[in-house]
Structure formats: structure tokens, C-alpha cells
Design goal:
This protein is α+β, with helices and mostly antiparallel strands. It has one domain: Arc Repressor Mutant, subunit A, CATH 1.10.10. The chain contains five helices and three strands. The protein has a three-stranded antiparallel β-sheet with strand order 1-3-2.
């Protein structure tokens, strides 16, 4: 049986976001502009993908101020880390079966 890939993470842009956030230590966060620059995405595109990840409970977005300047921080949640671990395990399993004939194909 082919493993299921999480459709929330599987979209290329969201996968790039999750991979980048997963590289941070648990509990660490990055500013929205920093993440945008790292990924080379537009603010609008990143916002759309972060919203989908936030709806799934995979990222936490905190809006605050540094002095008078608004700052938005993004972090991967525990649930997001677990989902990414499950996603990578499913990919490994899928790749491990590559080249193996399906039952009845011999």
C-alpha cells in the first residue's frame, strides 16, 4: 500500500516553508520578512501558504511590536514538527518501494 502524503505539507511552497522552519530549534521563531527573504517568496504568496499551515495547526504566527514597529514571528508548532516527521517517513517509505514491482506485475 502506498503511504499517504500530507496534502497540507506536500504543496511545494508549503514544503519549503516547513523544511525551513523545521531547521530552527524547537521553540525558536523567525520574522516574517526573514522567512520571506530566505525562501525568495513574495509577501502575498508566503501569507497564503502560512495561513493554510496555521489552519492545520502546523505553524504559529505571533504579531507583536518592537518599539513602535509591528513585527510578525513564525514558528513551527509541535504538531507541525510531528506532521513533518510523518511526511518525511512516508516519503522515505515511498522511495524505498521505488523500482519494486507491484504484486502481480512479475
Amino acid at each position: 500500500m502506498t503511504p499517504e502524503l500530507d496534502p497540507v505539507i506536500h504543496a511545494q511552497a508549503r514544503l519549503r516553508v516547513v523544511v525551513t522552519l523545521n531547521a530552527l530549534a524547537q521553540g525558536d521563531q523567525i520574522t516574517f520578512p526573514g522567512l520571506k527573504d530566505l525562501l525568495g517568496m513574495t509577501a502575498g504568496n508566503l501569507s497564503v501558504h502560512l495561513s493554510k499551515l496555521e489552519e492545520a495547526g502546523y505553524v504559529e504566527i505571533v504579531k507583536t511590536h518592537k518599539g513602535r514597529t509591528p513585527v510578525t514571528y513564525v514558528a513551527l508548532t509541535r504538531r507541525g514538527r510531528l506532521a513533518f516527521e510523518e511526511y518525511t517517513a512516508a516519503i522515505r517509505e515511498l522511495l524505498g518501494t521505488a523500482g519494486t514491482p507491484a504484486p502481480g506485475d512479475t
